[in-house]
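Format notes (please read before filing issues)

Several people have asked whether sequences and structure tokens are stored in separate files. They are not. Every record keeps both together, in the order shown below: the sequence lines, then the token lines. Line labels are part of the format and must not be stripped during preprocessing.
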Amino acid sequence: MQTIIEPFRIKSVEPIRQTTSEEREQLLNAAGYNLFLIDAKNILIDLLTDSGTSAMSTEQWAAMMRGDESYAGSESFYRMERVVRDLTGLRHVIPTHQGRAAERILFTVLCRKGQVIPNNTHFDTTRANIEFAGARAVDLLTPEAADTQARLDFKGNMDVQALERLIAAEGAANIPLVMITVTDNSGGGQPVSMANIAAVKEVASRHGIPLYLDACRFAENAWFIAQREPGYAEWTPKQIAQKMFSYADGCTFSAKKDAFANIGGLLCTNDDRLAVQETNLLILTEGFPTYGGLAGRDLEAIAVGLEEVLHPDYLRYRIASTGYLGRHIADHGVPIVEPPGGHAIYIDAARMLPHVPKHQFPAQALAVELYRHAGIRSVEIGSVMFGANAKHELLRLAIPRRVYTQSHMDYVVEAILEVNDYRAHICGLAIESEPPFLRHFSARFRRI
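Then the structure lines:
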């Protein structure tokens, strides 16, 4: 059978509102052409992010009813801790209200001014938290990934030789940790191979540098390894994930992605001394170590979600449905980052809109036009988000987990192809105002 079916039944529905193109034009103007500033009630299909937007299962909702809201020693925390330890093998499990809080604690404790943090590709909050701590974020993505059209199995791999050169140039003492993001969000949702994780671990260990995983989409990465990397076809997704984590000395984790939770994050480590420092900062800024800024019901939802996300039927559907969107637009001439990733499809806006120069933000212009035309919200991953650090001008269509059906994706395909037909008439944008950090969240634009 070729038809993709959702491996679940819909039990509760949420209405979505149709708007007219005239209404959307007014909304865009009022929001300064920044889709973050448009109210969700005015969005038809929301592909802004897959973070915190998942639909929770009946088992998660049932587990939430037993949430222990005790301030200290919550049984809900201990249930979640057992699941996380079984998955990651890491001793210390520190809950936070979301992933960027885990990043802030980690980099505040570990980083000093002038130090360097290598990653395959840092995402926006990761880079911002490193820079806020006074350190420098360095991307070391495999060179083959520079070609968005190249169809490689593991375009999220870190350049191991470049890591060796960076350590030689900066000195191991100036690199407090090496990080790998799985899957590589900024680079198109592309997976990292087990062999690459092992190779990076070998280099880091040889120089006495801890290896951390940014593990937001660990399950999707595990599925790609099972499908593409020799030797893992008979492994379960959980076995592959456990092996991935076995190379890590610690991890940060947004439970809003592959744990199906609407809020939550984790910071894990095997370093006893570091865990004490991180826990002290957690108490100061997030909450007691057995709730970390979360309600007990959220901890329960995360515990169940971390087990559900590794079900093969779910992962098969998840990756196939993302690929369905990618192939249908790519086969009709829309340039995407090839091959389709796990959580999102990325349109190469610089290729699609060659008449819009980089300083006029082609991906933001495309995002604006897709909303104006069809009510679809997406997000720019390019010069607005990363400034001079942007490698590409990408439009990300991030697919929330267990939320939209195939007919929703067919609508998205139709809308993108219609926009593609008149792409030569799409104009660029200029920034009118912006904050000092993470400007894409609140910058305002004008049409050129």
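For reference, the curators noted about this record: The chain has a mean pLDDT of 95. DSSP finds 16 helices and 14 strands in the chain.
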